[in-house]
Amino acid sequence: MARKYVATALAVWLIWAAFGGWSANALPDKVVAGGVLGPGGSVSSSMDPVNGNPANFGDAVYYSTTNASYALLVGADSYTPADDVVEARVVRNVGASGAWDWDNVNFAANVVVIVETIRGVNLWANVNYTTSLDATMDASGIQDLGDGELEALPPLTLTPAGSDVAVSWTRLTDANGNVVSYEVYHNTAPAPPWTSIARVTQGPTPSYNHAGLASGRHCYTLGVNYRRDPAGGVYTTTGRSEPVCATVTGPAPWIVSTDPADGALNVPLNQNIVVEFSEPIVLGSLQYTIAPTITLTPTGTDPVTFTHPDFTACQTYTMRITQARDVDGLDLIPSPPPVTPNPWTFTSLCQFPYVVTTVPASGAQQVPAGNSVVVTYSENMVTANVDFSPQPGSKSCNAAPLTVQTCTALFVPGVTYTAWANGTDSDGNAVIVQTAPNPFTFTINVPPAVTLTAPGTGECHSGGSQLLIAWTMSDTETAVGSLRVSLYYTSTATNPIFEDQPGFQNFGWTIPTTLNGNVFLTLEVTDEAGESDSAISANVEIDSTAPSVVLPVSPPSGQTGVATNLNIRITFSEPMDRAATELAFQISPNITPRAYGWGPGNVLTIYHNSTAFAAATVYTISFGPGAVDDCDPGMALDPAFTSTFTTGAGAKRPRPPTNLAAGDATATAIPLSWTAPTLYTDNSAIGNPTALRYIVERSASQTGPWTVLTATSIPETDYQDQSVVAGQAYYYRVTAVDPDYGPSEPTAPIQATAGVAPGPGFDWLVILIPIVVILVVVGLFLLLRKKKPVAVPPAKAPAGAPQAPAEAGEPAPPEEAVAEPTDEAAGGEKFIPCPNCGTMVKPTDAECFVCGAKL
User: Fold this and answer.
1) What is the phi/psi pair of residue 427, to 5°?
2) pTM
3) Residue numbers of the domain that contains 842
4) Which of 66, 204, 603, 847 lies in the 20 to 30 Å Cα band around 560?
5) pLDDT tens-digit map of 348-377
6) Residue 224: is it exposed, middle or buried by C-beta count within 10 angstroms (0-12/13-18/19+)?
7) Residue 66 lies inside a defined structural domain of this protein
8) Cα-to-chain-centroid distance, residue 569
9) For 185-206, what is each residue's pLDDT tens digit?
10) Comparing C-alpha atoms, which of 552, 551, 564 is closest to residue 615?
């Protein structure tokens, strides 16, 4: 701000010093000064108290608005009129105030100056004006408050309506923004004493409705409230707007009660009709109707009593007051809640029972399926029942005697039912049709249907972000725009997001930053019948906790002598957006190329094995604001992460594995094993050898080229090559890989040869199987052939007995001849030995069946 009033302030300061005899060191050190313009920015010096520049007749009050309990700054001051060149000026030594200890203020203090030109003060005779100036006291102790332009307190506009008066005005421009509200005052005359009735905040169209007034004159004026302190206190101007008055005629009349009341039954035939009004009415202004027509004679002003000939028995009458005016000429208005109906109906005494009302009423639509059917009769019924078509399931009605009968049933949505009530009273009279339809019909409502389409399964969102919730809904009878929607979220408890809103099908929910963990959403849709459907979302993970780097990192911040090939490892407190976090990583001096790898526990490793760090160099690593967790849209690291380390003279790697050896090879596999290294190349111990991984390579030559057999590095210290060719010789070598320092040198190659599969050889089975078959056949044949029994010689005749004579030509058998072997099966035919192999054969055989010799 230009310090255009500093010179004025200094001049006033020196005058005080001269007249007070102060030394330079004793001068006050807190002086404020500012300018006051007349309306429209006028700097005229006219001192005409009626038509002149109101800035020349003003006065000011000073406040410190930074003090919790406001401080009114009093002390020496001046108010200098305009001089046709510069505006009027205000100057005050606020440092001299005893109400505020400026020397102990350890923060910038704000000063507000309220300027008023008030009728009757400093000879001013016109309307009241006001403006404000403000500034923050700086270290120099002399503060330029700038300019303020006086504005007339706004005139009021009054709009009476019945017993109300609407008070409105145009807000002050208040270029310095210190007006916070307006004070509305009321009296029955345009003069004190005024009573404050409302405080209206500064807004584009400020107004106030003064309601419930008695008849007569009502006057209003307005004050302006400026800010005074942080606690909300205000300074109210001494000057007020010009008083304005309006005449109120009082409230219009309305109906308080009727007798008979609306819906009354069995009204005696000679009962008068009585109407009570909120105030007396002019009887000559009263107009009314009744149907069916009957002659009514009104008397009185409040209440009004209508006499008449007897009502017709069993008749329903409808009556209405169409006009009534009070003594002020105000017309009848609808009654306030609780509303007294106008028109209203009642039914005269009837000797036959009838149905007065049904719930639902005849023709009702969208009746909830769970609702009961209620029938009210005109008198107590001895027998009563309600029948339905089509017949609903599980119908049950309470039994007579009764006046009100309630029936429950399983109604089907979308079906129209017809119901009729029947029964008799104590005189045996059956139900007749009178005031309500009987039978009556109603249609059962079809409930709405709703489906949540968003959020989906497995979503994660950041606290404070906006979550899109979307759904589809439909209803047979209710338009989508007329459905009512409520939405809730459940974490440890169920809380409303919104309730009972008109139909729409998506919503952006700003997630509370107090939520952490899983929540689910419940959407409830209600139709015009009051029936609902609901849908529940899958769990949505809410993350309102910013991620952080878990210390220590590798290398630790401040570490020196770091190996030039050490990979950087950083652990995060929660899962991160990997792509965004990698892009946000920064290292200075920069080193490329580099690669990123993520491991369990949210560990990020930055690899740079192909490009080593420079030796004896300080490196700084950090993450930009793009490093966010893996929720949507993601929360940035908090606190921000920065770390430095210094490299040593060179690289550090694990030593190669030892004891590489091949096991017993087969024609299809060669097993390998080795021993993990325990030292780095600088002879320091490998702290965690189990973290090492291994790469196995194979070659047909000791010098390569080498083929990697392990698609990924393996943690085991053994491997089986199952891609060998039988009898083929191979060379193998193994490399250890450290997660921090990269790969070792490979081991010295070893040679191994795959086994050879056995050849075809001589197959003895080819000979043995036919021989066995032949022997089995022969054995079976021999078993089938049995020897003939030996011929029994004829018995000798006893001594001295005559022998039978031999037939002619037949020689007598020799005595004791030995029988030859015979084949019993062949009728006793003899066997002879084969001359070649001795096998017993028949003499009739052409050749031996064993050796084939000719017989």
Assistant:
1) -95, 5
2) 0.48
3) 828-855
4) 603
5) 988 889 998 999 999 999 999 999 999 999
6) buried
7) yes
8) 35
9) 999 999 999 999 999 999 899 9
10) 564
